[in-house]
Every structure is written in C-alpha cells, then in structure tokens.
Specification:
Elements: E1 2-9, H1 16-20, E2 25-30, E3 37-42, H2 46-58, E4 63-70, H3 77-89
Antiparallel strand pairs: 1-3, 1-4, 2-3
C-alpha cells in the first residue's frame, strides 16, 4: 500500500535527503507552505506504514509533525498505463 506523509519541521528545515534514507520512502520533496516536506511511502499494510515508516519519520531531529495520508485510490495516468506497457513488451 502507498501513502503520503506531510511533514512539518522546526523553522522549515530541508529534510528530503534524510527522508530518502528511510526504508519504504519512495520519493521525498522539500516544500514551501503549510508543510515543509512530503514523502511518498510504501508498506505492506496501513499499520506498517503508520507504526514503522511514519514513526521513524517522527523520530527524526527537527520533525515536529508527520501526518500520514494513506492512498485509497489512485487515478494516475502513469500508474494506469504501466500494466498495458508491460503487456506490450511481452
């Protein structure tokens, strides 16, 4: 399962590079606005996502908040096209 984690840090510290080192983090971006960073994460279950990956993010120095948002449904064109592209290559 996949989810996004919205992260706030002390004084907007950049943290994306540190997030990429965490197991399960697929993509990490430093942001401006209400949240300072965002991570796309993958885990075997919602429980693993929250109890392991989000918990590890919350333990990082400077992180003041990590809000998990598990993906319920994805309508990404890239993701929808992957099975067709895989079938074409076979």
């Amino acid at each position: 399962m996949e989810g996004y984690v919205l992260i706030q840090t002390m004084q907007g510290e950049p943290i994306a590079q540190v997030l990429r080192a965490i197991a399960g983090v697929v993509l990490a971006e430093d942001l401006t606005g209400a949240y300072d960073a965002m991570a796309l994460v993958r885990a075997d279950s919602t429980r693993d996502l929250i109890d392991e990956t989000v918990a590890e993010i919350r333990r990082l120095p400077g992180v003041t908040r990590a809000l998990p948002a598990p993906v319920v449904r994805s309508l990404s064109r890239v993701r929808d096209a992957e099975p067709a592209m895989a079938g074409e290559a076979a």
